[in-house]
Amino acid sequence: MLLSAAVIVCFVTATLFVVAQNNNILDALLNNGASTLHDIITNNPNHKSLVEYMTQPDASYTFFAPSDNAIQEAGLRNNQDNDYSDRFRYYIISNERLSQDEIYKEHRLRNSSFVPKQGKNHHTPLLIGTSPDGVWSYGEKGKIIQGDIQASNGIVHIIDHVLPVPGSAEQVLQAIPQTRDYANKLKSLNMSLQLFTHATVFAPTNDAIKGINGLKQDLPTLALVLNHLIIDKSFDATSIKYSDKVVDNYGFGFNISHNAGTNSSINGIPVLMADQIFDDGLIHVTDGIVLRGGLDQPKANLPQPDTSNAMKLFTFNFIYFTALSFSILIPLFAL
Questions:
Q1: Which of the residues 34, 112, 116, 335 could staple to 128 if both were Cys, CB 3.0 to 4.6 A apart?
Q2: In which element (H, E) is residue 271 found?
Q3: Hey, is 260 helix, strand or coil?
Q4: How far apart are the C-alpha atoms of 31 and 290, rounded to whole Å?
Q5: What is the pLDDT of residues 142-157, one digit of tens each?
Q6: What whole-number distance in Å separates Cα of residue 11 and Cα of residue 301?
Q7: Is there a contact between 234 and 199 (Cβ–Cβ < 8 Å)?
Q8: Phi, psi (rounded to 5 degrees) for 273
């Protein structure tokens, strides 16, 4: 009798395992708290290519699927007027089957399977972050509320938040409440982050920008201060947690220090929100204005940019063009 019961239990367990393994990551959404997402994807002809991608039998995916409640709170609708292909593909990591334990093990930036169709970085997949306290792009993190749902072509983790797909640096700075004043200040000075590629941005908080607004600075100096917070061609998809410096191709940038039990700091300025992802780099929100002038630059809380090189260049140009003007005008007066 006991032997028969044991055989039945083994048979039922094996059957359930086979059924689970025969379901792809799209089917696995059903009966696991994400059936709304399943219906939105499968009932919309605009999602045909997404369905084909998610049902590839030989794939190995990790899929972070927003729960029914998360979909409802985000206002996503199940109708044919909406195309969420890019957003849902962003939630899929390809060629990697990550268990919940592996995700919780470390703070990491990973490649999503979404590659933007347009733009200067069209060949580069957008990043998605995973850590012990959630999954993120920028802003709020999505926590795993049901993990390790096995499928034939991957593994599914149900999360409690719909993640925004990273947009431009300007869009992300405006979307993060703490950095909106910085974004507005850049705009008022006609400074565009679109001119930078593969960049790291150290974005001061609104309070820090209010402090700099109180200083009697000319616009060129202020622009120089803000420009120093953007390090062009410095982004290598490494979390700030594992970095000791961020520099550009010429070696200019910032030192990073890490103190046990606290956030990282940049030249003595605390980082409040690290690794906020935009479509061509990372944004780190800092509790103050960080100076830039090389890796040995001393700590400072208020901007004191080194403008000596700029002044030398200005003086040289002034003398040169003045002399050139006199060389042209003197012969004319002689006539």
A1: 112
A2: strand 269-278
A3: coil
A4: 50
A5: 999 999 999 999 999 9
A6: 67
A7: yes
A8: -135, 115
Angle at 93 between CA 73 and CA 232, to 5 degrees: 95
Burial class of residue 2 (count of CB atoms within 10 Å of its CB; 0-12, 13-18, 19+): exposed
Structure tokens at 167: 């947009």
Cα radius of gyration (the chain): 26
Partners of 277 in beta bridges: 282
Token digits for 179?
């950095």
Two structure tokens written together for 20: 């689970």
Tens digit of each residue's pLDDT (9 = 90 or more) over 234-262: 988 899 999 999 988 888 888 899 887 66
How many Å apart are CA 162 and CA 71, to the nearest integer?
A: 7
Spatial strand order in the sheet of 144-151: 92-93, 61-66, 154-159, 144-151
- Residues with Cβ within 8 Å of 60's Cβ and at least 6 positions away in sequence, in order, are 94, 95, 96, 97, 153, 154
- Yes or no: say if 200 and 164 are a contact pair by the CB < 8 Å rule: no
* 134: DSSP letter: E
Write down the pTM of the prediction: 0.79
DSSP string, 186-239: HHHTT--GGG-SSEEEEEEPHHHHHHHHTS---HHHHHHHHHTTEETT---S--
